[in-house]
Design goal:
This protein is of the alpha/beta class. The chain is built from 18 helices and 23 strands. The strands form six sheets. Strands 10-15-14-13-11-12 form a six-stranded mixed beta sheet, sandwiched between helices.
Length: 521
């Protein structure tokens, strides 16, 4: 049902992008009703508008807290144009039809964030007063009223919709369809809901649920896909520098943080052993370089050496502070994101030389939901996080592993855990030297891993192999052995485990069954 707009109420905090709307309304001969600062803005454009005070016969009172809360205003918005009683009462009380409501909300969340900044200093009473005054009353009320009466009223509650409104007004000569009005109403209710949740979270911090919060992203996996993040990133990291984080950035950042959280301590049999720095490079959620060395710089050099081609444009992560020496080395390549628990001042100065680089300071103990969610079909999948490295350490090969091999196999198994299935990780001296991931057969994943290691001139003699799931046949063990690998770790559980075990026994190879599969789809 097409409906011509007769009157528009505009009352906005931010005036950005408003000018084309006002000019379009004026050209279409639509009456404009407005308030305070918006009135001054519109009049500054040389366009006539009607202040709400002339309708209500009341000025803005109580320091601006009460401007639009009046039956004349809400009658104009809520009046049903197809009901004789409503039409009669609107005529009796001289209530004009308000068919378009353009209202945004006071910046409550922005104000809370501003005062929460470590750069802000001020007394608590002033802070709270400023925050409370940013709790909008009239704005949400008008938005809800207009959205409720979407049969007759078009509501725009977000400045990102200003352009689409201009296009609608011009293309349809000031008319809107029922479907369009309903779509805008749905978005308006969503905006008010999240606004109220933000206020509730402020007053009830102990009840805060990060999934109540959301933020728009530039786009999704591809530019034509809209995207949104639900959650509170500030609980996980602080952005120190760089451009706005994208959807794909966030997916890779999640993979990077999941990996680095595996390294709060050594995987050695001695749990008190000091952890050496670990550095990793993530590309499209897979680990393409990772190493553990005695210094951050050495770890970075070794991680980059794993696959310097794939590292281009990757996400970098470490479990130690970035020092000046390491920053200088990292500065030589192009990367999207760098995540670390701390940055030396000199290191930051170097890394901030490129304006778009995203630098994230990871919290000391990043909080993580105990549940992972994934949307699928018309619903949501939920599961526990894949925690731990191995459930058992069952030596089933032709010989037992040495202490050095145990440490290396535990390292390799964790790296393999963070590759997409089917996955194979080849490591040597706590460095990833070959990996195969996302393959449709396990032996293909191994072939890919071997090819990668040869591409960058790694010697597989003395390396170990980790598999995220069991070997269905002995072909993978044989192929790996033919290329110099003599120690394996896998969950076991195949009906044909005996074939792999017999091959290891015959050739005196070490093999460990963990009893814990690490599929990653």
């Amino acid at each position: 049902m097409q409906k011509k707009i007769a009157g528009a109420l505009i009352s906005v905090f931010y005036k950005d992008g408003l000018e084309p709307i006002v000019k379009s309304l004026d050209q279409l001969g639509i009456k404009i009703y407005t308030t305070g600062g918006t009135q001054k803005f519109i009049e500054g454009l040389g366009i006539k508008c009607i202040p709400v005070e002339s309708l209500t016969s009341y000025p803005s009172i109580l320091g601006g807290r009460v401007k639009t809360l009046h039956p004349i205003i809400f009658g104009g918005i809520l009046g049903r144009r197809d009901m004789e009683q409503d039409i009669s009462e609107m005529a009796q009380y001289k209530i004009p039809e308000i068919d378009l409501v353009i209202v945004d909300l006071y910046p409550f969340e922005e104000t809370v964030t501003q005062f929460a900044s470590p750069l802000f200093s001020g007394d608590s009473s002033t802070v709270e007063k400023s925050i409370i005054e940013k709790i909008d009353i009239g704005g949400p009320s008008m938005i809800r009223a207009a959205a409720k009466n979407f049969k007759d009223v078009l509501v725009v509650a977000a400045k990102e919709d200003y352009q689409s409104l201009v296009e609608l007004l011009q293309a349809q000569k000031g008319e809107s369809t029922l479907e369009q009005r309903k779509q805008y109403a749905a978005k308006a209710f969503d905006i008010v809901m999240n606004y109220d949740i933000a206020i509730s979270n402020y007053f009830n911090p102990s009840l805060f649920n990060p999934y109540h919060k959301k933020q728009s992203l530039r786009y999704g996996e591809n530019p034509h896909q809209q995207a949104m993040f639900y959650g509170d990133l500030s609980e996980v990291f602080t952005q120190l520098h760089g451009k706005e984080i994208s959807y794909n950035n966030l997916v890779d950042i999640d993979a990077a943080i999941q990996l680095i959280s595996e390294f709060p301590k050594s995987f050695s049999s001695n749990p008190t052993q000091k952890t050496d720095p670990v550095f990793a490079v993530i590309k499209h959620t897979n680990v393409c370089g990772v190493a553990q060395r005695t210094s951050v710089k050495e770890s970075w050099d070794a991680a980059l050496q794993c696959d310097p081609e794939s590292a281009f444009g990757g996400v970098l992560v470490t479990n130690n502070a970035i020092d000046e020496n390491t920053a200088s080395a990292i500065n030589e390549i192009f990367f999207e994101v760098l995540i670390a628990p701390a940055f030396e001042e000199a290191a930051l100065r170097i890394l901030q030389s490129k304006k778009n680089r995203i630098l994230l300071q990871l919290q000391t103990d990043p909080s993580k939901s105990p549940v992972q969610y994934k949307s699928i079909l018309n619903g949501t999948l939920a599961q526990d996080f894949d925690k731990g490295n191995y459930a058992d350490w069952n030596e089933v090969g032709g010989r037992n592993t040495s202490d050095a091999e145990k440490d290396e196999l535990a390292f390799a198994n964790i790296i393999c855990k963070h590759l997409k299935s089917n996955a194979i990780a080849l490591t040597k001296n706590k460095q990833l030297i070959g990996k195969g991931c996302g393959q449709t057969s396990r032996v293909d994943a191994l072939r890919q891993a071997i090819e990668k290691s040869k591409q960058f001139s790694f010697d597989l003699k003395g390396a170990v192999l980790a598999s995220d799931a069991f070997f269905p046949f002995s072909d993978s063990v044989q192929l790996a052995h033919e290329n110099g690998i003599e120690a394996f770790i896998q969950p076991g559980g195949s009906m044909r485990d005996k074939e792999s075990i017999e091959y290891c026994v015959k050739h005196q190879l070490a093999m460990v069954f963990t009893g814990l599969r690490h599929f990653r789809h």
